[in-house]
Amino acid sequence: MNIPWLTVVLCIPIGASLLLQLIPRTAATLLKVFTVAATAATAVVVWSLVAGMNGTSQSAGPLSFHYEEVHSWIPAIGAGYHLGLDGISAWILALNAGVFLLAAVLISRRDTERLKLFCGLLLLTETMTAGVLLSLDLLLFYLFWEGMLIPLYFILANYGNENRGRATLKFIIYTVAGSLLMLVAIIALQFAGHHGSFDITALLGGQMSRTPLVIPWVNISTFSPEQWAFLAFAAAFAIKIPMVPFHTWLPDLYESAPVPVLVFFAGLVSKLGAYGFIRFGLTLFPDAVNTFKWFFAALAVLSIIYGALMALSETDLKRIVAYSSISHLGFIALGIFTLTINGINGAVIQIVNHGIIIAALFIIVGLVEERTGTRDIRELAGLEKRMPWLYAFFLVATLAGLGMPGMNSFVGEFSIMLGAFQLHPVYAVAAGVGVVIASWYMLRLHQGLMHDPPQPRTEKVRDIRFGQGLVLLPLTALMVLIGVFPRPVTDIARPSVQQAVAIAESAPPATALVAVPANSSSGTP
Amino acid sequence: MNTSAVAVLGALILLFPLGGALVNALAGPRLPRSTVNLVGTLSILAAFVVACLMLAQVVGAPGGAKSATAHLWQWIDLGRGGFSVGVDLTLDPLSALMVMVITGVGFLIHVYSVGYMEHDSGIARFFSYMNLFIFSMLLLVLAGDLVILIIGWALVALSSYLLIGFWYERPSAVLAARKAFITQVIGDVALVIAAFLIVLRVGTLSIPGIFAAAGSFPSSGLEITVICSLLAVGAFAKSAQFPLHTWLPDAMEGPTPVSALIHAATMVTAGVYLIARFHPLFDRAPVAQGMVACVGIGTALMAGVIALSQVDIKRVIAYSTMSQIGLMIFAVGIGAYSAAMYHFAAHALFKALLFMAAGNVIHALHDEQDIRLMGGVAARMRRTELCFLSGTFALAGIPFFVGFFSKEGLLGFGLTNGPGAIPWVLYLVGLGINVLTGLYAFRLWATVFRGEPQTARVYAAHEAPTVMLGPVAILAVLSAGLGLVLGVWALLIHDNFLIGVFARFLSPVFTTPTSGALAVDLSTWQAVVAGVAGTVASLAGAGLAARLWLQRRPEPGVVVERLPRALPQLSYNRFYFDEIYDALLVRPTISLARTLRKVVEPRAMDGWVRLVADACSELGVWARDYQTGLIRDYASYMIAAAGLFVVLTIVLVSR
Amino acid sequence: MNAGGNFPFLLGLAAFLFSVGALGVLIRRNPIVVFMCIELMLNAVNIVFVSYGRFLNSEEGQVFAFMVIVVAAAEVVVGLALITQVFRLGRELDVDDLDEMRE
Q1: If A197 and its partner were Cys, which of A202, A299, B80, B225 is the partner (CB 3.0–4.6 Å)?
Q2: What is the Rg, in whole angstroms, of the alpha carbon atoms belonging to chain B?
Q3: Do B185 and A245 touch (CB under 8 A)?
Q4: Concatenated DSSP letters of A448-516
Q5: ipTM exceeding 0.90?
Q6: Which residues of B touch C101 (CB under 8 A)?
Q7: From the CA of A327, how many Å to the nearest CA of chain B?
């Protein structure tokens, strides 16, 4: 029987969020169980799909997919319902299923006001993010990309501390501004493509003009249409990642949002920008990517060091983790813009790693705040004595966060830095400085909480409960496991990364178009 | 050698300490103390047994096949255009020697810890960290792939961090741990970048593969020099060499067994091991070698000077460690690899001994570490004093103690290699270090054990329990007798000096197709001259120390006053390195971070976003004036715009 | 029959009607008259559509004209309902007076 599994993945959460409306508002336990069951069902489907993948892909073509579904949607304008799962999206989709399951579990363990609304929105968000990862049609992608903001807005605006309104507004306006630029570029791409289609497979390899646009009358030549379109996409993705200097929405938002939201927001949503760069940036605008890689890699390095320094000087636990996240996402972006096999493989694996690490860090920070009533690192000390188990979990997460060799993020950071070194040694050295500062701020965070004699606030706290440990255990176990056996991740991602890099490399640089004689140029249609 | 045997032995020797660490970490707090002690020590004993089997494998292997690499599993493989790493273990004479020392000395220190940590409630945590350390160190020396080596390298730093900060309620220990870790990370990054350069050039990260391709580097080329310099920076961070040495004295905040195990016997010698292991690369980079040699001997001299004026018993030994490792680094820098490894093995014995004997004293005096408050301990701790003395003799290089054979031989090698008069200059510096070594070694002994007790605590001191004295005594006997016995054995059976036999054992490692025969060898006359001159220097230092601190003729204070004022100041203040780094690196980084948070983030980063937002809202305010609410106005705007459009169209079309 | 000859006159008629309508919208204050003027403008546009359709030999002009008529009818329904409501509230029927939505 031929079951459209990708559609199933999309339908379970949204279907569950509709069914959820049948449950009365007061049946809190039922709501929680139902939400956990729905996310767990999605996770089981996704994880078995990913586990069933191996190195070979089913479909043919320059960009091939393990699972693919094509149906017509709005044929008049060339928009199709095209879903696909390949090695790059597979692990991020698996992460997606994981973080939403985790968020649902966290929600089930605490009292939330307006629980029904939250559960419904949570499930809706999962469908949207999964859709972003699965869509291969630009219009469909855009639909999910913007659709994601709707449930997110209601979650962020309704749950969290008193500053949430401002922070949410900033985030939404910021992201929408970037997305609208992307929409313009999507339409331009459809016009430029030969097939009048929004399908990524029809637009591969850069079909827009590469001759610079000239502003009439003043005769100043600017970027080419392809470059403009890439910059428009990049605006959307760079804001979502976020890369410095487009990051200011992030610390405020992370500070105000509650932990279950942060688990999937920091764990997944911010990675979608990076995914977008790999999936669309590389394959649709190879020439522009090659032109701008120096600039974006420099921005990425700036993010690494800037985020690390900010994390070093912040005193609020959540803000420290938020800035550490900016620094780590800088690594992911750096890996992508190296345009090397090493760098992009590293970026893919680091997306997964960072999702795990940041979820664990936010859960731990949440536990500390819940136990001690403060998030100020200056008022916290000596928790190791009172909370040995939390100490152990936090130690693993800290080490993973600072890129300790033997832990998961070392795999990613090593590959990324190797790729960066191939781009230019300066990038790798600068990233190395970031690694040193990372160990500094992570230890400051860890030791600040755990060591030294206990302070008044930490004198009488109790250790985490068994169930809370049970939530953290799989995360920390994964940090170690991926560090020791990273191959399952890279083996699935590798063929797809190679295809993406091959497409990105197939575009001769703009200068070479002139230098290479016509008969020797090949590859581009 | 059989690779499957290597795989089995390698897996076993790694699994025992790792298993011990896991058991104590997870179940330790619930287990009775005796079980924790047993798990902690027996896992290392088991590893030691496996290490003996490994040594037997190496010794028993036929001449041409002394090295074997076993492939456990593929760590990562990025295929075409990417890198790949296998979890490989290499067993050869060098790693066999390292493994023997690590597990042997490590086991004795574990036994000693049972006594030393008797009253500490965190014993399970302690043993779990210690076992983790042994595991990491073994992984480091057995690694057959550069990335696996880096993983072991960093795990060593991690366990060192955990152990230095073991007493986490002491703020000084917490800071020392952080400092040690961050310094190690600097070394890690250097190592990682060296790995990048290597893999991009030779296409593999497997250590045998790198050596096979070492010939592709042009000798003395820029690339190989940079690679070796970066490797050396990694080694300097781990071995506490200038300029990355400041963490080691602070690391004495950890419990004494930790200092003995990590900061004397094993971890800090990993840098020596690294350079020795990568000698096929260093042999092709004479500039880097020269740099390594100069840093080594410079650090040895500097640390010797500092050791003279420190007052914390463990810090004195720590600086002596730094000095001795400086000598080893010097030796690998001049290509005398087997001499360095020999001194490493000897040093592991007598330095662990010194630390543990010092630990006995500290324990007996209830955690007193200031030597000015000791004195006259000998009367109450006779056996400990004898052991300490054995270590002191070995450290100073008094004839027929184990240190004599290694150190004088090591310095002698300095004569054989190098351009022009440099070997002689270096040798003279080496002799000066010998004098210094004698001075500070005997100063420590004299001020701690001899003279009059300075505090009441000393009167209450009593000898350490057997579990602590036993390992110390074993090491004392070894450091007093092993050198002599082996030396006689070497002369009788092999008709060679001990160091020659040692060099022959290690020669399969240090002889490679690229470097030809053994880089340097010591002729008989050189050995004799070096031995005699070195001994004279050591004895001179020891005698001077005895006059100054034992007989107090003249008073040490008087001597200090006659020296140029800068020298004691520099020595006492450790050449102001901590202050310099604080002013040059730490403070600027922190103030930069503060500036970013207070100024750049709100003004610049959020500033431009606000600017855009404000511009939009200004636009809105301006446009509001045109929203009069009169339909007539709106209609006239529309009609005016339509009219304008018509006119524009006509103009553009008719153009 | 060829409409070519009438075409400029038809466009002129449409322009005239449109101008009358626009002027009426701008200067009259009674909402019902404003409404009628809008209808006038719409019908001027309809004339343009139909005559261009005739001129270009295509049905699309007429299709759009029907579209406009439908829209105009819908608009009248809504507009007249609004005006009736305003009248019921006892307000004077003066468009300049109905500016409460401004703030």
Answers
A1: A202
A2: 31
A3: no
A4: HHHSSSPPGGGTTPPPPPHHHHHHHHHHHHHHHHHHH--HHHHHHHHHHHHHHHHHHHHSPPTTHHHHS
A5: no
A6: 629
A7: 14
- Token pair listed for B368: 């007193």
Which residues share a beta bridge with B183? none
Contact B629/C101, CB-based, under 8 Å? Answer: yes
C contact residues 9-38, partner B, Cβ 8 Å cutoff: 22, 25-27, 34
CB A161 within 8 A of CB A256: yes
CB contact under 8 A, B631 and C22: no
Chain B residue whose CA is closest to C28:
B632
Cα–Cα distance, B31 to B36 (Å, whole number): 6
Q: Do B182 and A392 touch (CB under 8 A)?
A: no
Q: Which residue has the tokens 């005239």?
A: C16
Q: What is the mean pLDDT of chain A?
A: 86
Q: How far apart are CA B465 and CA B448, in angstroms?
A: 20
Average of pLDDT values for A98-104?
92
Q: Give chains near C: 3+ CB pairs under 8 A.
A: B
Q: Give buried/exposed letters for B186-225 (b at 16+ CB in 10 A, else e).
A: bbbbbbbbbbbbbbeebebbbbbbbbbbbeebeeeeeebb
Alpha-carbon gap, residue C103 to C100, rounded angstroms = 7
Interface contact flag, A404 B158, Cβ < 8 Å? yes
Instruction: Say which DSSP state A81 is in.
Output: E
The per-residue pLDDT for range A10-54, each reduced to its tens digit, is 999 999 999 998 888 888 889 999 999 999 999 999 999 888 886
C25 to chain B, closest Cα gap in Å: 7
Residues found in chain C: 103
| Cβ–Cβ < 8 Å for B103, B41 | no
Q: Is the pTM of this model over 0.90?
A: no
The encoded tokens of residue A224 equal 């080419």
Residue identified by tokens 């008044």 is A456
Q: Taking Cα atoms as reference points, which of A505, A209, A449, A60 lies closest to residue B81?
A: A505
| CB within 8 Å: B639 and C22 | yes
Q: CA of B639 to nearest chain C CA: how many angstroms apart?
A: 8
Interface residue C95 vs chain B (CB under 8 A): yes
Q: Give the pLDDT confidence of B142-160 residue by residue, as tens digits.
A: 998 999 999 999 999 999 9
CA B18, chain centre distance (Å)? 21
Identify from A342, A398, A423, A449 which residue to disrupt to test chain B contact, counting B C-beta atoms within 10 A and taking the largest count: A342
B81/A452 Cβ within 8 A: no
The answer to whether chain C touches chain A by having 3 or more C-beta pairs less than 8 angstroms apart is no
* Cis, bond preceding A212 (omega within 30 deg of 0): no
Q: Which amino acid is at A124?
A: L
| Inter-chain touch B632–C101, beta carbons under 8 Å | no
Q: Which residues of B touch A385 (CB under 8 A)?
A: 168-169
pLDDT at residue A522, rounded to an integer: 38
Amino acid identity, position B528: V
Q: Which amino acid is at B618?
A: E
- Tens digits of residue pLDDT in B489-546: 877 777 666 777 777 787 777 765 444 444 445 566 766 777 788 788 888 888 888 8
Residue B500 CB partners (closer than 8 Å, separation 6+):
B490, B494, B521, B522
CB-CB neighbours of A200 under 10 Å: 21
Q: Does A250 touch chain B (CB under 8 A)?
A: no
Q: CB contact, 8 Å: A7 with chain B?
A: no
Helix (H) or strand (E) holding A215: strand A214-215
| Contact assignment for B177 to A417 by CB distance below 8 Å | no
Distances in Å between the Cα of B310 and the Cα atoms of A161, A214, B201 are 54, 73, 47
Q: Is B220 left (phi over 0), alpha (psi -120 to 50) or beta?
A: left
C39 Cβ neighbours under 8 A, 6+ residues apart: C21, C72, C76
- Beta-bridge partner residues of B68: B91
Alpha helices (runs of H) in B596-630, residue ranges in sequence order: 606-624
